[in-house]
Design brief:
240 residues, alpha/beta, 4-stranded antiparallel β-sheet, 26% strand
């Protein structure tokens, strides 16, 4: 069942245009969002969350349009970028005490679980965290209010291979509980490990939105890894 529907999304900038992007994200599935830097992944994600206003197109969550239902919908969404840019000198504990008041579904048990799993010290400030630990802190916020949809922009950025693998396992556990996970990444091996579906964009255009199996059947040569397929497709596109 589609829990997120993006239809004909357009966003125009002087030097870049996101052109008619359409795809859906299903309940209980992990969708990998791929494309090289500058392809439009972050622009798409920001438009999906109304952080930027698209020029046209619609975004629906839980069969409701985001516009007009944003406050209610966002109570059920976890959003994370690869970095933390706010409250750099406040203790994590104090940030959490402020944030959890906005969520009726805040789950202290989940918060403690991920705090321990990510080895985060809640008495530290974001300023004292490494880049990898900042990523984990941002994910901690997204995972602690029982979100039904996680929308994550480069969530594994700055993480070591062990921590990345740990995070992918968490994604796999969450999808068993019906959570939809949508994440962008330039680390194609992460997509290969855990994604059910793939959305691939290039130069602001949708190339494919399909199951991983269908994507591989359509685009991959025999014996190619997903990363090798992506490199070949991007090189072809550069010379087209």
């Amino acid at each position: 069942m589609s829990i997120v529907e993006v239809q004909n999304l357009v966003k125009k900038y002087p030097s870049f245009v996101l052109k008619n992007i359409s795809f859906s994200v299903d309940k209980g599935k992990i969708t990998g969002f791929i494309g090289r830097n500058g392809a439009g992944k972050t622009t798409t994600i920001k438009a999906m969350l109304n952080l930027i206003r698209p020029d046209s197109g619609t975004v629906r969550f839980f069969q409701k349009p985001l516009i007009g239902n944003e406050t209610e919908i966002k109570k059920h969404i976890g959003y994370s970028t690869g970095t933390v840019n706010w409250y750099p000198r406040k203790k994590i504990k104090d940030i959490i005490d402020s944030e959890k008041r906005f969520y009726e579904t805040w789950d202290n048990e989940a918060y403690r679980k991920y705090l321990d799993l990510f080895l985060l010290d809640e008495h530290k400030t974001p300023l004292e965290l490494s880049e990898g630990m900042k990523v984990k802190f941002n994910l901690l916020l997204a995972l602690s209010h029982r979100a039904e949809v996680l929308i994550l922009d480069e969530p594994t950025s700055g993480l070591d291979p062990f921590s990345r693998d740990e995070l992918l396992k968490i994604f796999s556990e969450l999808k068993k509980d019906g959570v939809a996970v949508f994440f962008s990444t330039h680390i194609i091996s992460d997509i290969e490990k855990c994604a059910d579906d793939i959305v691939y964009i290039s130069k602001g255009r949708l190339v494919s939105a399909a199951s991983k199996a269908d994507f591989i059947a359509r685009f991959s040569a025999n014996g190619e890894t997903l990363e090798e397929t992506m490199l070949r497709l991007e090189r072809r596109d550069m010379h087209a």
